[in-house]
């Protein structure tokens, strides 16, 4: 299979593809490696994995395409006015010797919309979490309302978001943000001391030393949502992760060092449902249960753990938000999460101004919606039956649409042993 050094030297196979395509392939194949290597022996898996890894280090051949698909996807959001089509195979470039494979290759020019649809369709969504617990004498699914959306932010996007969060943290440490935006508590014991950044509003988990009750602090101001976070919010609504009726207007960034945790809680009702949390840097588990127990510093016992892969979004709603508590036990490695929430309008801090660019957001139309609209707008025939037509007749070339909103995936979702398990994230334990 592919020798990493060969890719660096210009593997003849790779010469058929430009830099952007190689990066797309690398990102795509890396994400699918667990599936592709299923049933393979260790050595074949290793060879496959080495081959894919070599693509990440392949040189950027095309001077015209400097950014990966993923980079451009975020950039597309950041600079919506950009009309350039990024991924273009120039068949007429005589500077590259063509092979027979190359001759067979069709001209491909993916529009911005098509690239977005491909990425949108590959988001993996799980919405059927089940954990029955007896609450007030009745068995209920305490996880009803939870949704895990995997692959919402690509590796390149995660990198940009993390580096932006690091800049914000630095600004917070240097006193360049509003006082209540940044908080870095003293690490007085293991599991305590998460760094947080709050935008849009700040709130208390519990009564504070000034006697303020838990919830949004009416008279404290923090910095507004940074631009990049608004870009993320737009993605969440557009890609059917959050409903347009509940566009977040605030967020908390949690920066966990190894051993930091967030104790069991139910999010304050000053925030409406659903809310969502996006994960970066390392995977950890979030624990749900109607009765989570503290068993040590950063150590909790509960019913159900959901692994949160990087780039994923967990949407918390229904019983998952209001019957079950949740917590993140001491994390095994540095992790960043951004929890987006919408404030109850009556609880907004004084002087809060809504973000105009977060108004009127709409989800991406999927094929089914297009067909519905098409049929709805067509005059009926005398038979009373709707006119027969294929959705793609009216899609003006946008046929790459697949609605897999309910696609299942086999995640590493684990139910606790005997419906109750203890989570440790410390080698000392
Ligand atoms: O870090 C997470 O994913 C969860 C954060 C959370 O529960 C919170 O900020 O209230």
UniProtKB/TrEMBL annotation:
<dbReference type="InterPro" id="IPR044842">
    <property type="entry name" value="ALKBH9B/ALKBH10B-like"/>
</dbReference>
<dbReference type="GO" id="GO:0032451">
    <property type="term" value="F:demethylase activity"/>
</dbReference>
<dbReference type="InterPro" id="IPR005123">
    <property type="entry name" value="Oxoglu/Fe-dep_dioxygenase_dom"/>
</dbReference>
<feature type="region of interest" description="Disordered">
    <location>
        <begin position="375"/>
        <end position="429"/>
    </location>
</feature>
<dbReference type="InterPro" id="IPR027450">
    <property type="entry name" value="AlkB-like"/>
</dbReference>
<dbReference type="GO" id="GO:0003729">
    <property type="term" value="F:mRNA binding"/>
</dbReference>
<protein>
    <submittedName>
        <fullName>Uncharacterized protein LOC105178147</fullName>
    </submittedName>
</protein>
<feature type="domain" description="Fe2OG dioxygenase">
    <location>
        <begin position="247"/>
        <end position="344"/>
    </location>
</feature>
<dbReference type="InterPro" id="IPR037151">
    <property type="entry name" value="AlkB-like_sf"/>
</dbReference>
<feature type="compositionally biased region" description="Basic and acidic residues">
    <location>
        <begin position="390"/>
        <end position="401"/>
    </location>
</feature>
<feature type="compositionally biased region" description="Basic residues">
    <location>
        <begin position="414"/>
        <end position="429"/>
    </location>
</feature>
<dbReference type="GO" id="GO:0006402">
    <property type="term" value="P:mRNA catabolic process"/>
</dbReference>
<dbReference type="Pfam" id="PF13532">
    <property type="entry name" value="2OG-FeII_Oxy_2"/>
</dbReference>
<comment type="similarity">
    <text>Belongs to the alkB family.</text>
</comment>
């Amino acid at each position: 299979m592919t020798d990493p050094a060969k890719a660096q030297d210009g593997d003849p196979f790779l010469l058929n593809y430009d830099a952007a395509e190689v990066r797309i392939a690398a990102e795509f194949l890396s994400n699918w490696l667990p599936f592709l290597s299923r049933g393979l022996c260790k050595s074949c898996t290793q060879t496959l994995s080495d081959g894919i890894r070599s693509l990440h280090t392949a040189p950027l051949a095309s001077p015209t395409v400097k950014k990966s698909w993923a980079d451009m996807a975020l950039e597309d959001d950041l600079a919506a006015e950009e009309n350039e089509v990024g991924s273009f195979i120039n068949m007429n470039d005589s500077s590259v010797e063509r092979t027979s494979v190359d001759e067979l290759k069709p001209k491909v020019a993916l529009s911005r919309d098509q690239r977005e649809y491909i990425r949108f369709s590959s988001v993996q969504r799980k919405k059927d979490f089940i954990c029955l617990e007896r609450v007030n004498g009745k068995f209920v699914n305490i996880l009803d309302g939870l949704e895990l959306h995997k692959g919402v932010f690509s590796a390149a996007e995660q990198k940009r978001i993390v580096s932006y969060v690091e800049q914000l943290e630095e600004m917070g440490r240097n006193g360049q943000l509003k006082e209540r935006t940044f908080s870095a508590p003293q690490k007085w014991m293991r599991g305590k001391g998460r760094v947080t950044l709050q935008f849009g509003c700040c709130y208390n988990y519990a009564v504070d030393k000034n006697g303020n009750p838990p919830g949004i602090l009416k008279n404290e101001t923090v910095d507004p949502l940074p631009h990049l976070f608004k870009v993320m919010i737009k993605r969440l609504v557009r890609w059917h992760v959050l409903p347009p009726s509940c566009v977040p207007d605030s967020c908390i960034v949690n920066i966990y060092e190894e051993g930091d945790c967030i104790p069991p809680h139910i999010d304050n009702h000053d925030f409406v449902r659903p809310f969502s949390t996006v994960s970066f840097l390392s995977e950890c588990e979030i624990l749900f249960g109607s009765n989570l127990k503290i068993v040590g510093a950063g150590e909790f016992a509960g019913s159900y753990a959901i692994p949160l892969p990087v780039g994923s979004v967990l949407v918390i709603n229904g019983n998952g938000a209001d019957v079950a508590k949740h917590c993140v036990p001491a994390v095994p490695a540095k992790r960043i999460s951004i929890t987006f929430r919408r404030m109850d309008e009556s609880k907004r801090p004084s002087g809060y101004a809504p973000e105009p660019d977060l108004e009127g957001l709409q989800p991406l139309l999927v094929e089914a919606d297009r067909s519905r609209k098409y049929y709805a707008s067509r005059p009926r025939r005398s038979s009373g039956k709707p006119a027969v037509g294929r959705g793609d007749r009216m899609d003006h070339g946008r046929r790459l649409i697949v609605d897999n909103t309910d696609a299942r995936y086999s995640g590493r979702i684990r139910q606790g042993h005997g419906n109750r398990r203890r989570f440790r994230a410390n080698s000392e334990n």
